[in-house]
């Protein structure tokens, strides 16, 4: 485990870990890294090319932009087109394709779209622009829900009637179960996202590891972080051990961040959630509690997401780990970062974007 910051960029340690993984592995193993940030690090740093051939990394659905349903994007575009509404969101959401374009194209048509670095910025915008309805499009996993909950709490404390949130929060453990319940899955073990575990803790992973016989290792995002995690996962798989291990001790406590969990629980509650490419997963997301419903954009504007339509984009298969991005027939041709067919090619954490930017040439030569 890495204990000091200077340790995770040592080339000699990388070589040592690769050698150790090669020494341990005796058969093919399929390990899914959950987070898109982990995927980008694996691809950008060439780790996929230097791992033993028996170690197959499968890219998971841990990209919040990628799993946000198209119907939510369509509702955000609908709101942004209203004269009385300013739609606020993060920068990586504005190019995600909906049925009829993106928020960026809606802005080009005259829609009011504002990029924010924080949901609290949107709250302050609502305070200084009482003549406008300010709607914040909030997506994310356990990492972002506390900040969004804090924004709703602050809006209520400030008595802002013109602030609301169009939200689509999802949770990692239910998605892992859904993937493992798929009869076509090939996953043997997981690298859990360290920043998610830093907020939520690791308690929910023990049941998954035990019931599905799949070891889970919490890791960071630097090359050495990931290699430590892969080594530990391979060691457990080779020994037929199905445990939960924390290889990111400098950031993750087994119980997580209690204050963050408390504010999230105050504002949100569990709900079934639609995932782009994965369908509806029971109790896999969060919705705004009744006590905060005045700030729920779905209720305030009487919005209802429409049923997802079939798409030619094969993002769902990529998110389930059933296909590599470059195995999609549209990859690099009909679907590029400049003209994306699906969210994984747009997001800074999307697997398709990672392959295009860092791995594309080596795949096609």
Number of helices: 16
Please state the average pLDDT score: 90
What is the beta-strand fraction? 15-25%
CATH fold node name of the largest domain: Rossmann fold
Low-confidence stretches: 1-6, 361-365
Main sheet: strand order: 4-3-5-6-11-10
Q: What percent of the residues sit in helical stretches (DSSP H or I)?
A: 40-55%
Write a brief caption for the model:
This protein has 365 residues and is an alpha/beta fold. The protein has 16 helices and 11 strands.
What does this protein structure show overall?
It contains 16 helices and eleven strands. With 365 residues, the chain is of the alpha/beta class. Helix 2 runs parallel beside helix 16. Residues 1-6 and 361-365 have low confidence and may be disordered.
List the helices and strands and how they pair.
Layout: H1 11-24, E1 29-35, H2 36-44, H3 47-50, E2 55-62, H4 64-67, H5 70-80, E3 85-89, H6 103-108, E4 113-115, H7 119-128, E5 133-140, H8 145-158, E6 163-170, H9 172-181, E7 189-193, H10 194-200, H11 203-212, E8 216-219, H12 223-238, E9 244-246, H13 258-267, E10 268-275, E11 279-288, H14 297-300, H15 315-319, H16 351-363
Parallel strand pairs: 1-2, 1-7, 3-4, 3-5, 5-6, 7-8, 8-9
Antiparallel strand pairs: 6-11, 10-11
Helix pairs in contact: 1-12, 2-16, 7-8, 8-13, 9-11
